[in-house]
Amino acid sequence: MVKNHLNIVLRKLKKEKLYSLVNIFGLTIGLTAFLLISLYVRDELSFDKFHDNEQSIYRLIRTNERSGASGKTISDLVDYFAYDMPEIEGFNRLMNLGAQALVSIEDRQFNTPQVFYAQDNFFEFFSFDLLAGSSASVFVGGNKAVLSESYSKKLFGDEDPIGKLIKIEKKEQYLITGIAKDSPANSTIQFQVLLNKPGAFTNDFENTGGVQTAITYLKVSPNLDLNKLVTHINDAKERPTYNMFTKDTEYSLLPLTDQRLYASYESDAFDKNDIRYVKLFSGIGILVLLLAVINYINLVTAQSLERMKEVGLRKVIGASRGDLIAYQLVESIVITTLSFLLAFAIAERLLPFYNDILDKDIQIAYFGLEFFVWVVLAGLGLGLLSGIYPALNISRGRPLALLQKQTGGFIGAKWLKKGLALAQFTATAVLITILALMNKQMTFLKEKDLGFETDFTVEINLDEDSTHLYQSLKNQIMTISGVENVSLNGFDMGGGWISTIYSEPRVEGKSRGNSVAEKIIRADGNMIGTLDMGFYWQAENYDPNSFDDNQVIINYSLADKLGWLEDPIGHKLYEYNDRSGKELVAIVNDFHINSLKEEVEPMFILPLSDWGANRLIVKLNGVEGYKKLSEIEVLYQSFFDRPFEYAFLDDKLESFYKKEAGQFRMFQLFSLIAVIISLLGLIALTTYMIAQRRKEVSIRKVLGASVKGLLLLLNKEYSILVLIAFIVAAPIAYFFMENWLSKFVYRIAIGPIPFVVGFLSFISLSWLVAAYQSFKTSSENPAKVLREE
User: Fold this and answer.
1) Which residue ranges does the record assign to the MacB-like periplasmic core domain (predicted)?
2) What's the pTM value of the predicted model, to 2 decimals?
């Protein structure tokens, strides 16, 4: 019996090519979208779960009322509490050497990201595989280095690097003792070079007056009371001599497997994501799948009107209701299985493009467990689920009515069909509205005034060992045609230093005035002009060409915090041992050096120092200046023995929103798919509704109704459904977008326009889709239709 049904189904699919194509196409694109989203969600939820005892490892987090949360803590703070609690089984630390470190091997040099100081038990603490070297001894003895497999091949090709020396920043040499397998794609911790040296994490606050920070992980006993441990950590923060940096800070623990999706801090040495995106796309995946299933049910139900005679004849010649149900389920399973197979094949070929958008390395393989579960089990399951309603509906028709092609031969409930259509339209309305609001926010991010100019503005890192050459290089770059301005400074988009400054001088035996620990930028007087920043106020004696150690510039936020906006004249700020003070000579308008997810920080600008000036900002004269970068490179390399690398500030700005941009493009794609599926569903709905009203339309036409009036009559019902769908969708979309937008400090306000535009766009598309069928029915000869009775 099943074989007979299968043969009939295959012949029917071949004969009714258009019906088969529309059915399979609608289901396939929905399933493809669902599969791709499922792969994304699975990948995100799998991060860091490959480590042994991952449930026992936690990351130490600090939260400060002023600066918010951070994934880095003072590098040796853990030494002040870890040995007091036997429940802490171990700890490990990582400290990155900045965005890039200069790695030298013989006469070759490479600017290398992901270079970290690591604690000597790193490969015993974490489950990263070593291809060469022992996890217990690879860092024994100090000044040792472990390279990732890919970076080793970059430096040495197929040559064995064990026992060779590398130099970091042209200063310290490290012996290569191990090669590590590249970190898994679903590992938060990613590295190219790990370095170990004695005292790397120890602070010398008494001599330097500052502290360094590191990423700290704790491994704890399985049954440890975490609240007790957190209390113990916070009790220990007063012990170090640098407790002035810890007294206003609260510490907490974040599970290792949560650092990818649940971290409360924004900036990190490692790439991170947000669980809200995972939830959002999970919801989209389910919506798209439901749309595809509802669309399939509507198409089959609509097509059943064309099969009434066939079903009636089957019943007359003795087919039981069970036979009709079995046939319909076989047809449904065949179509869904074909769709699942096509979706798998399409998804597999789209993965390179998909991975490029999301910066991932997701893989699927034919004939693996995924293929079997997806195509065989899911195809069978969804086939039964989506085919059961059409099967029951078709099998209940009365034979005589079916042979006369009366729609009353089906006893299907109209409310269910309308309910399915309403659910489909509502889901689409939610996606369209969210897409409109996301597009508005992403446009806002691109167009928001940052307080400085990024177009054709280039950032060039300098060699820290050659500070005496900085000014000469700047002066010579200024002579190149196409260069408008050059500034020597420590301006760093997305980074920067925090320093403490006081409103009163230091006096022995006397308490200091108010202190403010704010972001500091060291710069020459050209920085404000080079970046085209605006002034809120300037002192009469301010001259950018003579900005010196006795002067300070602050931004609007710091002036507001200090209460100096109304009367800025005559104020001074003092560094730690500064007794004479620095005169306030200008207040610049606020400018964003971090993403718009973070509020503008109060900051002050001090004149250059050897440690504070580590980059040049070069303003180019459009395309002409861009062509001169090769001349700047030649000049740079004549001063410094290191690779020349530069970055445009607008590219760095885009990198702040790289993840959002990729996920937005993904959302655009899946929303388009949802709209296509909904329009296919609308074809089925209008086909069904118009077929049921053919006799009514003919009678109205005989009585004098115009084609225009009939078109309005036929389209009114589903248009009302679309309107209701958008009314229902509005609060749902508003809830989701308020949650998504909450991570941006600077954001759009949710107004009515995106909702209205979304509704008008979809209703216009729906009218275009239904226009042909409506016009065809309205133009039919009434006599011909009425004779069919």
Assistant:
1) 20-231
2) 0.78
